[in-house]
């Protein structure tokens, strides 16, 4: 495992972390605590020390599983959770210091911790990033010892740029992959100046960048890749990175030609992200222990050559620059 400095926290975290959206099983399935334990143990045994969760993942069961896991391990882990998405309706008015404080105290109980390494605002409405009182709450919580660090999880680059204007924001979680390249521009410049850590989510564009999907692939009714293609339930950008599925397949076909001979395109896609020094960690999810070890194979891949990096950029410009670049 390789480790990277996590911005102004000065912590060293594994450059491949674990996203726990599906740690208890596939999307829509009942939560399996034994499966979650196996996945978490596999991650730990392979050197992963960064775990990302949220209070809404499986209605808190993800946090509970991580709490039980932490009690059984002797290693030190950096655990990041998120709060805010429980607010219903999920709007700016619902975000109040009192509501967020309650969510954080509940996360502490589920994780069985006295203090949280990192709490992230969980993709709040854009207006929230203009409210100093929300960010001030976390200074109070830090003084009380309940929180060590504040981060933000965002949908849009603009939200990230506004959020890091607050000095107590130490990290940004953002979608960044071969099909969503906009963060590599102004955003990466600014996080470098401000010494802010970057957590990359949706690195495989909801599986498109594994190269395993076709026009005949069917997704179950409970899978967001079935019911959220047009943003019916949450931000469209979370599903297939917001791109048109068939267009994505065309772009994948070109990537396969570019990396001919590579059996697993996912390894290349993850390695591509790690080519950017401003990335602190990438958090692919896993619904099976084997997926953890599969994701880690990217660390055995050599650095991409300059020609390969430029070709990936050309594919992005060809298929996505005019359609999705300005959205997120």
- N- to C-terminal distance: 31 Å
The largest beta-sheet arranges its strands as 3-4-5-6-7-8-9-10
**Sheet with the most strands, sense and barrel status:** 8 strands, parallel
DSSP strand content? 5-15%
User: Structural class from helices and strands?
Assistant: alpha/beta
What distinguishing features does this structure have?
single chain, 328 residues, alpha/beta, eight-stranded parallel beta sheet, two-stranded antiparallel ribbon, 11 helices
In short:
With 328 residues, the protein is an alpha/beta fold. It contains eleven helices and ten strands.
Report on the architecture of this protein:
It is a single chain. The protein is α/β, with parallel strands linked by helices and 328 residues long. Helix content is 36%, strand content 12%. The strands form 2 sheets. It has an 8-stranded parallel sheet, with helices on one face. The protein has a two-stranded antiparallel ribbon with strand order 1-2. The two termini are 31 Å apart.
């Amino acid at each position: 495992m390789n480790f990277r400095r996590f911005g102004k926290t000065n912590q060293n975290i594994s450059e491949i972390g674990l996203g726990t959206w599906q740690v208890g099983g596939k999307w829509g399935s009942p939560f399996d605590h034994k499966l979650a334990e196996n996945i978490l143990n596999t991650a730990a045994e392979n050197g992963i020390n960064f775990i990302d969760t949220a209070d809404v993942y499986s209605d808190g069961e993800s946090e509970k599983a991580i709490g039980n896991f932490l009690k059984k391990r002797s290693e030190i882990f950096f655990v990041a959770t998120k709060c805010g998405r429980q607010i219903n309706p999920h709007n700016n008015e619902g975000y109040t210091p009192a509501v967020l404080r309650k969510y954080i105290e509940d996360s502490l109980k589920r994780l069985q911790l006295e203090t949280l390494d990192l709490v992230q605002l969980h993709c709040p409405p854009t207006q929230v990033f203009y409210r100093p009182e929300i960010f001030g709450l976390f200074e109070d919580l830090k003084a009380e010892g309940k929180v060590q660090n504040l981060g933000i999880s965002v949908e849009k680059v603009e939200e990230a740029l506004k959020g890091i204007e607050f000095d107590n924001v130490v990290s940004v979680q953002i979608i960044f992959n071969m099909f969503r390249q906009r963060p590599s521009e102004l955003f990466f410049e600014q996080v470098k100046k401000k010494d802010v850590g970057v957590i990359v989510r949706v690195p495989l564009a909801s599986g498109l960048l594994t190269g395993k999907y076709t026009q005949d692939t069917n997704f179950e009714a409970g899978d967001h890749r079935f019911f959220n293609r047009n943003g019916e339930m949450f931000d469209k950008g979370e599903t297939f990175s917001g791109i048109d599925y068939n267009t994505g397949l065309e772009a994948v076909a070109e990537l396969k030609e570019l990396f001919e001979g590579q059996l697993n395109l996912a390894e290349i896609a993850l390695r591509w992200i790690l080519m950017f020094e401003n990335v602190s960690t990438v958090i692919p999810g896993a619904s099976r222990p084997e997926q953890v070890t599969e994701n880690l194979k990217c660390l055995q891949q050599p650095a991409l050559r300059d020609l390969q990096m430029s070709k990936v950029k050309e594919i992005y410009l060809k298929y996505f620059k005019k359609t999705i670049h300005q959205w997120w």
